[in-house]
């Protein structure tokens, strides 16, 4: 497969002027990102790399990072994790409070904000230094010891994060939060502030395309069963309340973030990351969605 030719075609077909969305503004620092940015990177199972555009530039990965925290919680808790968080698509906005009342404080899945905050509670409770251990995990699976939080983004999230704080307090009142609120939201805001490039994200997500093993070393980070479950959750819950549309158009498991990034995997084939900060009305990268649809169409490869 000539992936570079496919990427060149995608780059030539698409332009930020052709989309109607807007850069995320509810986190003040994200509103400052140049809307013209556009990059894409594929990392293949045979260790080849293909890319275009701004694929080496770091950006705030936001909710994409929830896949990493979920992975760490699964390593710690195994199947007991699902007593604290469910595995169903939400059908509601990612920061919904009302759904929690109906379901007695158990979030629908680990990728909506409430679910990721329960995961954060688990990591804060069980790890000695959760923020550093998160960094260690991400640095290990990318092979890059320089990956770090964006302190400006984390501070910006904290300054406007009242709804997330409300979610933690509400779940604590319903008995599904064990730790104090402050360390949970501090971890969560830092988690979402992780700064990575498309290349680094494609490298990190290769473990989900490679049955839980780091491609370069062969070290098993996650069991094949855990990877199966994570990929299933990405397929059904990875795009807020637009997961069905992504499955319909693209046909890959993946995860998006309001920083404009999307990562997707094709098991045993490749992992791919794309970044364009302009979001559609559901909070997903508008160009990113289109670029990945073109990738699976032009390659003729999806999981379906």
Give a structural overview.
By secondary structure, this protein is of the alpha+beta class. It has one domain: Beta-lactamase. The strands form three sheets. Strands 3-2-9-8-7 form a five-stranded antiparallel β-sheet, with helices on both faces. A hairpin with a 4-residue loop joins β7 and β8. The longest helix has 14 residues. The chain starts with a helix and ends in a 5-residue tail after the last helix. Its EC number is 3.5.1.2. Homotetramer. It comes from Salegentibacter flavus.
Low-confidence stretches: none
Major pleated sheet: 5 strands, antiparallel
Give the integer mean of the pLDDT values: 94
Under CATH at level 1, the class stands as: Alpha Beta
Radius of gyration: 18 Å
Strand composition percent: 5-15%
First-to-last CA distance: 18 Å
Based on CA inertia axes, which overall geometry fits? globular
Instruction: Give the neighbour order of strands across the main sheet.
Output: 3-2-9-8-7
Q: What is the annotated CATH architecture?
A: 3-Layer(aba) Sandwich
The CATH homologous superfamily corresponds to DD-peptidase/beta-lactamase superfamily
Elements, N to C (H/E): HEEEEHHHHEHHHEHHHHEEEEH
SS summary, helix count: 13
Number of strands: 10
Q: Quickly give the structural class.
A: alpha+beta
User: In CATH terms, what is the fold-level topology?
Assistant: Beta-lactamase
The tally of domains stands at: 1
Family: Belongs to the glutaminase family.
Keywords: Acetylation, Hydrolase
Catalytic activity: L-glutamine + H2O = L-glutamate + NH4(+)
GO molecular function, one term: glutaminase activity
């Amino acid at each position: 497969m000539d992936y570079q030719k496919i990427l060149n075609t995608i780059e030539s077909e698409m332009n930020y002027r052709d989309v109607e969305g807007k850069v995320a503004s509810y986190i003040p620092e994200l509103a400052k990102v140049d809307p013209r940015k556009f990059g894409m990177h594929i990392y293949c199972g045979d260790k080849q790399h293909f890319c275009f555009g701004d694929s080496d530039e770091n950006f705030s990965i936001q909710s994409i990072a929830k896949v990493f925290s979920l992975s760490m919680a699964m390593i710690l808790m195994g199947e007991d994790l699902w007593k604290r968080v469910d595995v169903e698509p939400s059908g509601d906005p990612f920061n919904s409070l009302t759904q929690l009342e109906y379901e007695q404080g158990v979030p629908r899945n680990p990728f909506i904000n409430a679910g990721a905050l329960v995961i954060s509670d688990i990591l804060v409770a069980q790890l000695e230094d959760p923020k550093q251990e998160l960094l260690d995990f991400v640095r290990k699976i990318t092979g890059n010891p320089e990956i770090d939080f964006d302190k400006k983004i984390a501070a910006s999230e904290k300054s406007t994060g009242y709804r997330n704080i409300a979610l933690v307090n509400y779940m604590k009142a319903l008995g599904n939060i064990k730790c104090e609120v402050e360390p949970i939201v501090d971890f969560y805001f830092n988690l979402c502030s992780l700064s990575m490039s498309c290349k680094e994200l494609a490298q990190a997500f290769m473990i989900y395309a490679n049955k839980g093993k780091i491609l370069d070393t062969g070290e098993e980070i996650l069991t094949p069963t855990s990877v199966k479950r994570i990929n299933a959750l990405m397929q059904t819950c990875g795009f807020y309340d637009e997961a069905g549309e992504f499955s319909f158009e693209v046909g890959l498991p993946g995860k998006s973030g309001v920083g404009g990034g999307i990562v997707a995997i094709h098991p045993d084939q490749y992992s791919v990351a794309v970044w364009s900060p302009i979001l559609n009305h559901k909070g997903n990268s508008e160009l990113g969605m289109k670029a990945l649809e073109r990738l699976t169409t032009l390659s003729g490869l999806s999981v379906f």
